[in-house]
Design brief:
With 76 residues, the chain is α+β, with helices and mostly antiparallel strands. The chain has one domain: Lrp/AsnC effector binding domain/regulation of amino acid metabolism (RAM) domain (Alpha-Beta Plaits), CATH 3.30.70.920. The chain is 28% helix and 39% strand. It is globular. The termini are close together.
Length: 76
């Protein structure tokens, strides 16, 4: 399994609803609103790196309120 941290920047006022939608999604281990340069951090887990990429580009990027993401893949 591959685990990744997805750092998400959202449109103003949309982080709460985004976290709710992420928590209801398959392969999302957790999602939290945070302070700092990002608005939400999601932990995703999938079978391989291609599935992680697909989850982010086909699902997370298309969610309402998402402006930009930065992904860090766990290595240990």
């Amino acid at each position: 399994m591959v685990k990744a941290y997805v750092l998400i920047e959202t449109r103003a006022g949309s982080s709460t609803s985004l976290v709710g939608a992420l928590q209801d999604s398959a392969n999302i281990v957790s999602a939290s609103r945070v302070t700092g340069p990002y608005d939400v951090i999601a932990i995703v887990q999938a079978e391989d790196l291609n599935k992680v990429h697909e989850l982010i580009t086909e699902h997370i990027h298309r969610m309402q309120g998402v402006q930009r993401t930065t992904t860090s893949v766990a290595i240990g």
